[in-house]
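Run Cation:dicarboxylase symporter family transporter through structure prediction, thanks.
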Amino acid sequence: MENAANSRRRLPPLWLQILIGLVVGGIIGTLWHGFGAALQPIGTLFIKAIKMIVIPLVFSAVTLGIYKMGSDLKQLGRLGALAFIWFYVATGISIILGIALNGIFHPAAGVVLQATGKLPENLATSIDWVKFFTDIVPDNIVSAMAGQKIIPTLFFAICFGISLAGIGEKAKVVVDFLEGILNSMFKLTQGVVATAPVAVAAIMAWVFATQGGSVIWGMAKLIGLMYVGLLIIMVIFWIIVAALGLNPFATTRKVMEPLLLAFTTCSSEVTLPVHMNILEKTGIPNKIVSFVLPLGYSFNLDGAALYQSLAVCFLAEAYGLHLDMASILTILLTTLIANKGTANVPAASLVVLAVILSSLNLPMEAIAILAGVDRFMDMGRTTINVFGNTIAAVLLYKFGGKAVAEDDGVASVVGV
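Sure, done. The structure for Cation:dicarboxylase symporter family transporter is below.
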């Protein structure tokens, strides 16, 4: 037993194990294409295992968070207002940065358009706002949960949490049950995430075996410029963290596990249980974490916003459209609105691109040009989406959550 314990202590931290898996997987996929492609089921099993945790975790965490704030609806409203102000500010900065980078570097110069991927079937080319708002309210919560629909689940959890707060002591049995579910989900998450290094190696082996090579280099300028933009956003986030009196590099290191999971799986959902657990351990109250993260994963997509504005500008210039001030404003406003309006729509980034291209009278088929390399851009933008929600949680704690911490008796020190 002692030897086993010593062996575990000698293992590198999980984030470093994941990073090693990422590199090993890339090497396998590059050198042994057939073997790398055959490893896809391992990655698929890992992603499915995480996704099975997400809905019960989100439902129990959000319900309990709202229940604990339910006695002070003013506080709840203030946190919600602060969250959405930050979501729109961060998204606006990302969109403007994407437009600016295209205006400076013009990655579409000399590009000959040729589709390298396929459009998803029945891809929406506009946003049905009536359907968007009516879909927020689930007609069957069990069906919504079974369909992994986060926003209807969030809506029900918020309403349920407020209702529990309104019935006093009678809610205790339900609250205890939900706390048991939440703690069980965190424990289950630890077990699943322990397999992440192997799963990440399998995913990266499959990606490099099936989607690498000439397709990537054909769009290298766009991919490279997008990663420059993502790095700039990261620096902006670091400056904000430093302005709050925290160490930006220590903050990044502490959330390295969800960032690496986001990079390799291209899924924010997969990172949610790990991300929530880490932020709570740093001292941010459960009330804030369970409120901000599920909301942010649906509405705060900073990396996606940068990609969408940059990609549309790239396609517009590749088709010979001169981007005058009217076109730039159209891209800015349409992306800002559509980025939030597609929060519960499948293939959301592609739908946003379709909406913006439609507003500029550009052919929808242009999206297929990006489809061949979308995986490599999705890795980066998902990572920034996750880190952006770390910043959202820290900001809300600093500016709207001190009272929450005092109510809970939590020390007002965030070690992120």
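The radius of gyration is 22 Å.
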